[in-house]
Amino acid sequence: MANTILVGAQWGDEGKGKIIDVLTQKADIVVRTQGGNNAGHTVFIGKQKYVLHLIPSGILRKGKSCVIGNGVVVDPIGLVNEIDGLLKLGVAVDSNLFISETAHLVLPYHRELDSQREILKGKNKIGTTKRGIGPAYGDKAARTGLRMIDLVNPSRFEHLLKLKIKENNEILKAFGAKPLSFPQVHKAYRAAGDQLKPFVANTVVLLHEATRRGDNILFEGAQGTFLDIDHGTYPYVTSSNTTAGGACTGSGIPPHRMDKVVGVMKAYTTRVGEGPLPTENAEIADLLHGMGREFGATTGRPRRCGWFDAVATRHATMVNGIDELAVTNVDGLDSVEVIRVCVGYRVGTKQFDYVPNDIELLAKSEPVYVDFPGWKQSTTAARRWKDLPAKTRTYLKALAELTGAKLAIVSVGPSRDQTIFV
Ligand code: IMP
Ligand code: MG
Questions:
Q1: Residues of the chain with pLDDT under 70
Q2: C-alpha 36 to ligand 1 mean position (Å)
């Protein structure tokens, strides 16, 4: 499979966790390169449900190495809890996990500032996961962040943390929020640092050695294209590059060593948090929520739902260079009578076949729809392309054609075997 970058082609939650888990079979190493524990990747193995936030989904397969790359922001306590949770479920986490020395830390003042800024924004809030992601990347860009390499150096960590807490307590006071106690934070994070120390490594060197050996590396994207800090619906985005380029900067593997980009998308559209979603539709949201589907894996929030937006996925193919598509949650549409697909946006008399950068224009955009007849039968037992109803195949072929990439994988349910290779 060579070096493959997997990205979300929509607004996150495309079902990347499951597709990663399936593709991991052919990979030697799985790498997270951006985001933090704002992500929530759900994987079912048999009846057991696993929700991963920072650790690559590859951890669930024996014999695979997992890397948390330099582009990720790591909440040390969140990571320790995640490791403990996996150990309790019998998943080995030992010499198969590596954390980049240069990954930045998410600390309690980041989470507190994330919450305070959202409160201040009021009705204009972003709807963040409140995991401190924005403020942590903010510190990174401002060159005032702390990194894993600092966390595992006790005297340096103490010194740097003291300064940061002093600075951030002034800011928190201005917000009218409670200041943090240095001794408390220091003690808790030092303990987490001791637990994480065995995993901390120079992951750039490690990945280059692996590349030289000819290992297959899978780059596990988090969030989705329209949450990208540069290419998403700014400011309603996350604070990292969720698009394919982020896999290079977030790992240290150069662009010409990448072989393939796989774009994951749902057979419809969802979004958590605020910001424009042109194809949003209450009926399909009610239907999916009624089926117990589409609740956030990290925050439990009901996701906003809408019809498939081909303008958006075509844009995603452009900015990511998507070669192959994985379409997930096809079974979510099993009972729908008429399935709509957005093929253009209209604002007044103007029509767009790309995603406008002006957020107000995007918010005003009316979708132009093409309708497809529903197949009105269960697809969950299909295991081969030809097992799918003819109407499902027509629909999926149209999605791939409109998106502009080759249909490679279809998912008809959460388990590993509910996967069709086209
Ligand atoms: P943040 O990443 O917590 O700052 O949140 C910024 C925006 O990205 C919000 O709309 C979140 O709901 C969204 N977001 C962040 N992580 C994910 C994810 O893993 N899936 C879907 N949406 C996400
Ligand atoms: Mg998710």
A1: 1
A2: 10
